[in-house]
Amino acid sequence: MKPGRKQAGVIPYRGQGKQTLFCLITTSSGRHWTFPKGIIEVGDSIHGAALREALEEAGVHGQLVDPAVGTFQQQKWDTEFLVEMYLMTVSRVDETWPEQYQRQRKWCSGETALALVSGRPVEDVLVAALVRLA
């Protein structure tokens, strides 16, 4: 196993209260639902990486909410990643986006989002996000 690396990600949302909807995407394999995240490139800030991944993987634009809502660890490509996740208020949704043919995008309630990521590493971070937004 290679030493740990950092990734940045977002939990995109729009609306408020009972009208809050979250944007989930499928993983690159298409087998699971998750949120946009990816490697922090050399010279990139964690915020810049999070916003870039939101655009590339989900076609959403918006503003990050500081501080990070949480972190989780994930193994991928024989590497351990520490993923720092931010809430992101969505201001615009593109009809086309760079990874639209690799991933599905879905808007759903917090309850449905929790069911879709149940048992996945990001589940506890989504719970923290729901508490923060309540």
Give the secondary structure arrangement, pairings included:
Layout (H helix, E strand, L loop, with lengths): L1 E13 L6 E6 L6 E2 L2 E3 L6 H13 L1 E17 L2 E15 L11 E4 L1 H8 L5 H11 L1
Parallel strand pairs: 1-6
Antiparallel strand pairs: 1-2, 1-4, 2-3, 2-7, 5-6
List keywords for this structure.
24% helix; globular; seven-stranded mixed sheet; 134 residues; 45% strand; alpha+beta
Q: What do you see in this structure?
A:
- The protein is of the alpha+beta class and 134 residues long.
- Helices cover 24% and strands 45% of the residues.
- Strands 1, 2, 3, 4, 5, 6 and 7 form a seven-stranded mixed beta sheet that branches.
- The longest helix has 13 residues, at 46-58.
- The mean pLDDT is 93.
Q: Specify the number of helices.
A: 3
- Our measurement of the CA-to-CA distance between the termini, rounded to an integer number of angstroms, reads 39 Å
Element-by-element helix/strand order:
EEEEHEEEHH
What does the main sheet amount to? 7 strands, mixed
- Binned strand content: 35-45%
Rg on CA atoms, Å: 14 Å
